[in-house]
Amino acid sequence: MKKLSRHHLKNIKGANASLCNGCPTHIKYGPGVEYTGTCDNYFALPDYCKDQNCVRVSRSCFGDS
C-alpha cells in the first residue's frame, strides 16, 4: 500500500469537509461592510479552522505587507 502525502490527502474530493467541521465556512472575515465577520472574529477562531484554510479572510487582517 502506498502512503499518501498530506497535500494529496487534502485534495481528495470530500476530504476538506471533514477537516472543517465546526468552522463557520460561510463567513468572510475582514474590514469593511462587504465582510460578515471582523478580523478580530477571525483571530478568535480555533487554530484548525485557520490552519486548514476553512474560512475566507482578507489580507488586510494581517497588516500592510
DSSP helical segment count: 4
The overall pLDDT average reads: 83
Distance between the termini: 44 Å
- In terms of structural class, how would the helical and strand content be classed? mainly alpha
Q: Helicity range of the residues?
A: 25-40%
Shape, per Cα inertia axes? elongated
How big is the Rg? 14 Å
Report strand %: 5-15%
Poorly predicted runs are none
Description:
The protein has helices at 6-10, 15-19, 39-43, 47-51; strands spanning 28-29, 56-57. It is mainly alpha-helical and 65 residues long. The chain has a two-stranded parallel sheet. The radius of gyration is 14 Å and the shape is elongated. The N and C termini lie far apart (44 Å).
Describe the structure in brief:
This protein is mostly helical and 65 residues long. It contains 4 helices and 2 strands, in the order ααβααβ.
Which features does this protein show?
elongated; mainly alpha; 65 residues
Q: What's the structural blueprint in terms of helices and strands?
A:
Blueprint: H1 6-10, H2 15-19, E1 28-29, H3 39-43, H4 47-51, E2 56-57
Parallel strand pairs: 1-2
